[in-house]
Amino acid sequence: DSGVTQTPKHLITATGQRVTLRCSPRSGDLSVYWYQQSLDQGLQFLIHYYNGEERAKGNILERFSAQQFPDLHSELNLSSLELGDSALYFCASSLRAGGWETQYFGPGTRLLVL
Amino acid sequence: AQRVTQPEKLLSVFKGAPVELKCNYSYSGSPELFWYVQYSRQRLQLLLRHISRESIKGFTADLNKGETSFHLKKPFAQEEDSAMYYCALRDSGAGSYQLTFGKGTKLSVIP
Q1: What are phi and psi of B79, to 5 degrees?
Q2: Please, what is the end-to-end C-alpha distance for chain A in angstroms?
């Protein structure tokens, strides 16, 4: 599959714990975006990386951080987890950082915090 | 701040009936508007974008800047159109191009 991939598909953990979500962009894409989808807030932008550098931050908590590695995959780290962090986390990739480009979405990681 | 509003959480129509999924936005600049669709158990995928003025799977959407709307329309609904539909806005002037999504409308086409 040459599309965006995300691992793991599902994650169940306890409050206070830390997890790492992984995203591999489409081959050749330099931009990775992270979004959080929750029942009450809908789909919200968290953070954007382009070619290893942070480009923009959205509604991302201080307990959350991300990075993009030289091979362009990205990781979203969530720490001191709370019940309210339970959500579906999507990443999307695009070739560059703007213009009229389409963002291609991964299948998401479903996080459940108990 | 930009905002996208989809007033209907759920829309049920009969097969063959016209469909209109509403989307209104608030944004001070020149917006780029998109419709994304998520079929059951599949990932979010782009349906269409206002800049292309195209018709995909029989769907069209026209950007109305006066009414700040980007409603999605299809003259004859098909069962395979049943899905979640998200309207999204991209800030074309911010230096980054994240999407602001509406909360989505679930379209159910009744056979």
Answers
A1: -60, -35
A2: 32
Say if strands A74-78 and A64-68 run parallel, antiparallel, or are unpaired: antiparallel
Name the residue among B43, B44, B104 with its Cβ closest to that of A42. Answer: B104
Beta bridge partners of A101: none
- A107 in contact with chain B, both atoms CB, cutoff 8 A: yes
Q: Which of residues 59-78 of A touch B (CB under 8 A)?
A: none
Cross-strand bridge partners of residue A43: A37
Which chain A residue has the Cα nearest residue B98? Answer: A45
Q: pLDDT per position in chain A (114 positions), as tens?
A: 569 999 999 999 999 999 999 999 999 999 999 999 988 888 999 999 999 999 888 889 999 999 999 999 999 999 999 999 999 999 999 987 665 678 899 999 999 999
Cα B68 to Cα A90: distance, rounded to the nearest angstrom: 28
Cis peptide before B7 (omega within 30 of 0): no
Task: For chain A, give the number of residues.
Answer: 114
Contact A48 B45 (CB under 8 A): no
B45/A105 CB distance under 8 A: yes
